[in-house]
Target: Nucleoside diphosphate kinase
Amino acid sequence: MATNRTFTMIKPDGVENGHIGAILEKINAAGFRIVAMKLTQMTKRDAESFYGVHSERPFFGELVEFMTRGAIVAAVLEKDNAVEDFRALIGATNPAEAAEGTIRKLYATSIGENAVHGSDSDENAAIEAAFHFSGRELF
Ligand code: RTP
Ligand code: MG
Model:
């Protein structure tokens, strides 16, 4: 995976609340190219593995419950400086602390149900993209 790619999910709350179109519009307007995309649902095992770094945190059970409760949109995005620029576009984890105009400020409802995921490093972007997509699904 090139270092100009990141991985994102529109989380179950974003899908349930009807924000897929608006969030993709923000992503397009910010200059990201969609390399791969699908509507899918994570199993409990998927979510426990994907967010395994947080397994000892008090919110882990709630996070796994939330991430598996409905459909998500998984996508790989391409742009110069993709990981950092996408984290800026989504805003802080807690929407109450997210900057104006960011996706989480606009569409997240709480620190737990915060509408979108964004990879936090080039290394994790590659791991997370491979978690959801095979080589032939990347365009
Ligand atoms: P993400 O990995 O989903 O992009 O989120 P992030 O980097 O901004 O935040 P992170 O610390 O990696 O936390 C992962 C997700 O766990 C949920 N969370 N809940 N209740 C809480 O205090 C709490 N803290 C985190 C959120 O869904 C967060 O995005
Ligand atoms: Mg994170």
The chain is about 40% helix and 15% strand. The first strand starts at residue 5 and ends at 10.
